[in-house]
Amino acid sequence: MEQLQWAQEVSEKICHKMRIVAERNKEKIPYTTVDGVFDDKSDDNTIGWWTNGFWGGMMWQLYNATKDELYKEIAVSNEKKLDYVLMHNKMLDHDNGFKWLPTAVANFRLNGDEEAKNRGILAADNLAGRFNPVGRFIRAWNDGGDGVKAGWAIIDCMMNLPLLYWAHEVTNDPRYLQIATMHADTAQKYFIREDGSSNHIVEFDPVTGEYVRIYRGQGYAEGSSWTRGQAWAIYGFALSYIHTGNESYLNTAKRVANYFIANTPESGLIPVDFRQPVDCTLEDSTAAAIAACGMIEIAKQLEKKGELGVNESHIYLNAAVKMLKALDEKRSNWDDNCDAIIEKCTSAFHDAKGHEITIIYGDYYFIEAIWKLTEQEIFIW
Ligand code: GLY
Fold it and tell me: What's the predicted TM-score (pTM) here?
């Protein structure tokens, strides 16, 4: 009850600030802020960036809660700008889900828009085309045409699988479901370690499909524990459970969540890597917001499982609320003159220019988590 009242108060702060921020930035697709002002990633050189669906997604979440047409207008404009990406194969990759689920698919789900559905299917077909049938994984990233990354897969891709689950739902073509679940099974086997933590990048031989090695990726070191990667695993496996009902995905989501909770500092603020040096204070608020979304979904699924599930669900809900309260109290900027809300987001451990900045998906997942708690969410994934 107390949690709900707090979440409602945060929701009101979000609605107040975002109306002003949206009006001021309606022509943009932001990624970060410079001196409190959103940048814009909608020109031909930057429109392919993987985060370019989150602004549209925020607008749909706000539209769903308020029915204010401004948000719809901005979300549709974001979706249309992404058509340039659909026409350039080098801009298409494993992150098609991040771009078109919060934009076109959300538009289709909310408004039944057929053009939006067409965009979603095109993006899903391209994502499915990245599947390596021998290694049973969806290829991450592109390369210069030399095939260097043809065998790379990343944990983040779990969040893109819902584009395939959605395509299966609307076309009744089982290939989308088969590809999504084969990738999830491979991720479960090769990414998730015995202690419940996750690798970021795994390389397979793209010809034989055999496991080759892991890479450091965006975390501190090879074999370390990049927190946003852990968060993608928690939320991604929870989503694969929601879409398939396969219990092993829920168990995997719980294992990674248990690892995440055991490593969460008393402050509720999340480092960039759970295995970064002890004297390093670098944080990533996006990991907290994404993990919170995943844990709320785990709690919801457990609540459907009778008394024992209900008794267990509070572990995940409380852990999520602890992180969200820490973000609200210590890492949120509620000043209407600054465009972003969530501070201290970090893109990668070894990229100093992306340390503790504002990042659009920090705001997106914070809003989504608060919307889950206040039942205002449009289910994007
Ligand atoms: N999916 C890329 C990232 O989390 O930075």
Answer: 0.98
Rounded distance between C-alpha atoms, residue 366 and residue 325, angstroms: 10
Return the closest-CA partner of residue 379 out of 320, 305, 293, 289.
Answer: 293
For residues 85 and 314, give the distance between their C-alpha atoms in angstroms, rounded to a whole number: 42
Architecture per CATH, domain 2-130+227-374, reads as Alpha/alpha barrel (1.50)
- pLDDT at residue 2 in the model: 81
d(CA 203, CA 191): 10
Residue 93 Cβ contacting ligand 1 at under 6 Å: no
pLDDT, position 345 = 99
DSSP H helices in the chain? 2-24, 54-66, 69-81, 83-86, 96-100, 106-111, 114-128, 161-171, 174-190, 227-244, 247-263, 285-303, 306-330, 360-374
Alpha-carbon gap, residue 10 to 6, rounded angstroms: 6
Q: Which of 80, 83, 104 is nearest to 27 (CA)?
A: 80
Catalytic residue, candidates 43, 93, 125, 156 = 156
pLDDT per 10-residue tile (average), the chain, 381 residues? 91 98 98 98 97 98 98 98 97 98 98 98 98 98 96 98 99 98 98 98 98 98 98 99 98 98 98 98 99 98 96 97 98 98 98 98 99 98 98
Burial of 146 (0-12, 13-18, 19+ CB in 10 A): exposed
Rounded Cα distance, 1 and 217, in Å: 41
94 close to ligand 1 (CB < 6 Angstrom):
no
The predicted structure's pLDDT at residue 3: 84
Instruction: Indicate if 40 belongs to the active site.
Output: no
Known catalytic residue at 328:
no
> Cβ(41) to ligand 1 under 6 A?
no
CA of 361 relative to ligand 1 center, distance in Å: 10
